[in-house]
Amino acid sequence: MPRNYNRYQYETSPRKLKPEYTPAKNPYKQKKTTINKNENQKKKNTIKNKNKKAKTIMYIALAFSILFTISYRNAQIDENFSEVQDLKKELALLEKENEQLEVSIESNLNLSNLEEQARDLLGMHKLTSKQTIYVDLPKSDYIQSSAEKIVMEEEGLSFKSLFETITNLFK
After folding, report:
1. pLDDT tens-digit map of 85-97
2. DSSP state of 128
3. Are 15 and 9 in contact (CB under 8 A)?
4. Is 101 within 8 Å of 107 (Cβ atoms)?
5. Structure pTM?
């Protein structure tokens, strides 16, 4: 084919010339450099994608565990609060029952009720004038206050012991 170098070209880029010799390509030989680069790039991309997926899964798991912990603590707080309320109600009932028992005891402890129960249940009677015995005691008082005696003895002992130590020093 004759080459037409004199022909005018309207484009801005120059015309490409074909080389006169083109080497024959081996169809069985693979390009190692491009395949290896593509494989390495694909491996890197898959590893990056796996890492991104793993990170998002970890963040989701972390958020879920935090929310689960918060909800568990709130459930425990609610349970303890209801237990406290039940105990307060039980305490109020016991206090009310205690007050009612105190009122009933006070009403049963008056003198007329005691005399009636002593007569009916125990068979007791009031004393008559014949059953009363009078005892004559001499006018002198046999009671001595022990507190004054101890204080006097302690004062006397301390003064005596001080006097004895002084006399022992001069001997």
Report:
1. 999 999 999 999 9
2. P
3. yes
4. no
5. 0.38
